[in-house]
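Input.
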Amino acid sequence: MTAPETGAVLARRRRTVAATGLVGAAFLGAGLTAPAGSGRFYGLTAATAATYVAGSLASGPVRRGSRKVLAPAALGAGAFGVFYTGGLVARRIPFARRAISRILGYASQGIDPLVVGVAFANGVAEEMYFRGAVYDAAGGKRPLVASTAAYVVATTATRNPALVFASVLMGSLFAVQRQATGGVQAPAITHLVWTVLMMRFLPPLFAEEPIRPVPALDRSPART
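Output.
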């Protein structure tokens, strides 16, 4: 087991993590308010991933943890099932439908390979930062709570309540995985599987239903 960091090492990690969080949240918020499929969207979301990766590595070692693949992948699929079920309800609530449709617009309107690539890069980067650097920077002071709170606060920069709600649920799950497996690989696998299933199957659920024409009234004079 790795000894907990203390003193100057921990202080340096915390300073680096704090600076990275501010810059990353700014890029995240700007990227997810840019038009879907635009160069600005891709540039800002790529910058978000690069910021989180660079900050994580600069703060100190990022622990890989468990090498298992199937269990975290299955957990990602299970998490998607929960969100899909919730989507069946949310699409009938105008406020929730609008919030979810805004974020799903990036999956349905953008260039698919680029959108998937950016989503995957950000998924890995977020795990390295929040469940890696932030978790370790918390030291012994409730790292699950600290890493999840930081994840939720950063997500509020998007100003999308659906994303903030998802960050509470998934951030908690990823943090528990980090604690159980000792590193970021398991939550990263779960994150990626959940992401690709959400991008593939959730947009059709929130697609606008075609408007059926109202049959014209027969106004011809009655025959006698």
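Residues 129 and 224 are 81 Å apart (CA to CA).
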